[in-house]
Amino acid sequence: MDRLPLIEAARGIRPLDLAITNVQLVNVFTCEIYPADIGILGNRIALVGPAGAYQLDAKTTYDGSGKWACPGFVDTHLHIESSMVTPANYAAAVLPFGTTTSIIDPHEIGNVLGMEGIRFMLEGSEGIPLRTYLTISSCVPAVPGKETAGADFGPAEIAEMLSWPRVIALAEMMDFMGIVNGNPKMVGIVDEALKAGVKVQGHSPLLSGRDLNAYIASGIDNDHELRIGEEGLEKLRLGLLPLLKVSTFGNYARPIVPKLLELPHLELALCTDDISPADLLENGHMDRVIREMLYHGIEPAVAIRWATLNGARHYQLRDHGAIAPGYLADIVLLSSLEEVKASEVFVDGELLVENGKLLQEIPEPPTGIEIKNSVTIQPLSADAFEIKPPIENGEVTLNVMELLPTRLSKLVQTKATVKDGKIDFASLDADICTIAIVPRHGQSHPPVVALLKGLGLKRATLASSIAHDSHNILITGHRPEDMLLATQALVQCGGGLVFVQDGDVLGKVELPLAGLMSYKPVAELAVEMQMMDDLAVELGIPHRAKALATTGLALTVIPEVRLSDLLGMVDVATQEPIPLFPDFV
Predict the structure, then answer these.
(1) Residue span of the structural domain in which 439 resides
(2) For labeling, which of 162, 228, 391, 557 is most exposed (least CB within 10 Å)?
């Protein structure tokens, strides 16, 4: 924009469009809070001064008495697909919580629809009032050669997409062992980002020592997948910026922050990563992550700095993340600083949220991408979900994947009785069920089947086309017939989640957009997901994510054991298959 009018408005020789007066300004440069007035021209801030210090001639004046003014929150890493809605409906849901800038990684839809999926998110976010910047998915599939997705991105595809508008980074490099081991494809993908001059997001849970040094040396700039405080300390000392998160799948900040507070100086940024619809409406968005920082005794202005200026500066987003002359007029008025409760939200100097309510609908931008049913499977029968033991009768030892409350997993072993060539499930622990992956991107290979402990599911079957990150159909259950019925239900509706028991569908959420998203608003999906969460609890699932508890079990970069559609159970550290029957290798 031409800055001359802004200069004149700052000097007082041109009238302002908007003055926000008598606020308590949260200054994220100095981490002070003091009374101030704010003058806005067009979509930018012209001046900021002590309350009453300047005569502000403005077309509109908004009295902010009793409220705190802070920059709009900047979410430094998230997946809109995890909220199961389009970018426009996502914006309508998060703006009332004060989030005005989102840095999205569309690798969920990218794994299903390839470059067309990334372009859909780009076009579907064009012109919406939530500032939406893209990071280009680096790992499609998450670990090449170990799983199959609906697409395969190499350096050439990455280079093309990095040239698209509003692209500001390479998305999370999840194949961290590929980088550490010098895989040419993975290193080449990072090199394309470095040549493009953009930031590179990391994803390396519990990585340390020389391997961590090697990972960072490749060009990684940040990491949102920290698990413990010592890990955060080591990564900070090596120059990696932690993006602390609180998500639907857990509070990852709580075990980390106390250790980091031992440092004499600490700079972080914050993110949400994955927020389900019901969780979003009940618990908030970036405001919730800030509240977690306050829980640890961090001063509000410092926590807000971490949620605004730090992320904006890290991603080189000029004029974002602060209330200062020349900055974009994205401002949140809080009615409570301690509760981080957004009352009014201005974007580009326009009031979009008042008293916590969105003032206008956000229309869907037109896209040129035709979305079809993306769930394509080979013909199946119920016996595809049965484990085939290597003996006809007797006792066998089986390797079992155990899901832990932290969403991590470990390998355990159990004994089972075999009768007439079939596993006698009555001989197993009651907490063990069958887990299977059905390829849904048109692959020709059959489902893989294993055993899962720790989910808590009783009798019923849970199936989902949300299976990070390749998003094949992931099914956990007890009866092969129910597992087949659940798969068929997802094929018919184009994907989603479904509970089946004894031949009956107990509950279903349809996600026809790539098997990941709906065109419904978050509020409608929240009701449907709450029903599914209630069912999950009723059926015995104790995990925080409830109906979504299984969605990460196919993500072959989360320790220690995961399930791959190509290899069955996988040791994440070595990326080698784990035999189901260890005594018969």
Answers:
(1) 382-584
(2) 391
